[in-house]
Amino acid sequence: MRSTARCSTLPPAALLIAMLWLTGCAMAGSDARAPCPPMVEYTSAEQARAADEVEALPQGAVIVRMLADYAVLRDQARACR
C-alpha cells in the first residue's frame, strides 16, 4: 500500500505565495489606526428629552442596557479624537 503523506503536503512554492499574501496585508504598519467614527452632537434639549423618555421606561427594560453600551462606545470614539 502506498503512503499518501506526500499528497497531503503543500509544495514550498505554495507556502511562499501564501506567506507573501499575508505579509502584503500588514504593509500599513502596526501603528496605523483606524479612522475615528463620526460623533453626532445632541442639543441639551434633546438630551433632556431622552433622559425623560428613559425614566418613563418600565423597570428592567433592555433598551436601558443598550443605551449604556452606546454611552461606552461614544466615550471610546471621543477618546479616539
UniProtKB/TrEMBL annotation:
Highest taxon above the source species: Bacteria
Signal peptide: 1-28
Alphabetized UniProt keyword annotations: Signal
Statement: the UniProt record of this protein carries the keyword Signal: yes
Protein name: Uncharacterized protein
